[in-house]
Amino acid sequence: DISLDDVMGAEALPKQIAAFYETVRLFPSVPALTRMPLQDTEVCGYAIPKHQEVFINLYGCHRDIEIWGNDAERFKLSRFEDPNSCPYLSTKGLPDAASFGVGGRACLGRPLSMVEMRATVSFLLLKYEIKSVRKEKTKA
Asked: In whole angstroms, how far apart are CA 130 and each of 2, 121, 124, 125?
């Protein structure tokens, strides 16, 4: 049997956070962001005039093999478990995905979504027995 401590305890938290960020990396609720520089800017060799709206394709960025590796399409918890191995870090230096935006324009709902995710996952794990339908063993 699974106890409440098994799903809500300190040992479960890092895996839940890693699963959350890996899920929103692969399936962002907002697949793109827009930004507008306040001064002429250059990004990766491209000149961007001030006040020119820029479209940021999060769906593509989160699947870029130059950032996430050759297995960028694969769900892999280890991407977010270790801050030293995560290719994308938040402004606080923690493993992150840009799905909620970054900096001063980041989504204010991120903390609430984390609480809701933990509550939902914990309820499901306590209420139901979850089994894989695959015959072979898989690694997250």
From this structure: 11, 11, 9, 7
